[in-house]
Amino acid sequence: MSVEKEKMMSREEIYDGQIVHLFKDQVELAGRKAVREVILHCGAAAIIPVTADGKVLFVKQYRYPVGEALLEIPAGKMDPGETPDACAARELEEETGYRGTLKKLGYVYTTPGFCNETIHLYLATDLVHTAQHLDEGEFLDVLPIPLDEVWDMIRKGQIYDAKTLSAFAIARDALK
């Protein structure tokens, strides 16, 4: 069986929010019709910031949808017209108070079954301390964790955030 592209026949806007835009699409594939609920997202960048002494700067913040505080790499959504590189540099400084040399690792689709969100992944080195500039309503702690300890936490299932796990899987060779 070959994989064919679905053709959108119609689109109905359901919701337009600050983060997501929800549509109900009527699609056709091989003569059959189906409904697809689709969330459009502007995209994001996530960064693994590594200090000169081999610590990774994590952020810990409460995530309302899952009802718990998660340990994550710094990340955030792109502003309209912003490039992934610019977003990564901005989010790194906003959330951690550091600037650095960015190396693009790749990208991941977070939930391609219903959302087009793409998170661009970066490694940041040569960090220079500046000042943290959190967005209004953003509360987080910055936690420097030795890289060896990070790998142990991943093996033990102590990090649950998908973008963080994906970034470390992609960056594994670069972090040796």
What do these coordinates show?
The protein is α+β, with helices and mostly antiparallel strands and 176 residues long. The protein has two domains: 7-40; 44-171, Alpha-Beta Complex (Nucleoside Triphosphate Pyrophosphohydrolase). It is built from three helices and ten strands. The strands form three sheets. It has a four-stranded mixed sheet with strand order 7-4-9-8, sandwiched between helices. A three-stranded antiparallel sheet has the order 1-2-3, with no helix packed on it. A hairpin with a 2-residue loop joins β2 and β3 (32-40). It is elongated. The termini are far apart. The mean pLDDT is 95.
Question: What is the secondary structure topology, with strand pairs?
Answer:
Layout: E1 7-16, E2 21-29, E3 32-40, E4 44-49, E5 55-63, E6 68-72, E7 75-77, H1 84-96, E8 98-109, E9 118-129, E10 141-146, H2 147-155, H3 162-171
Parallel strand pairs: 4-9
Antiparallel strand pairs: 1-2, 2-3, 4-7, 5-6, 5-10, 8-9
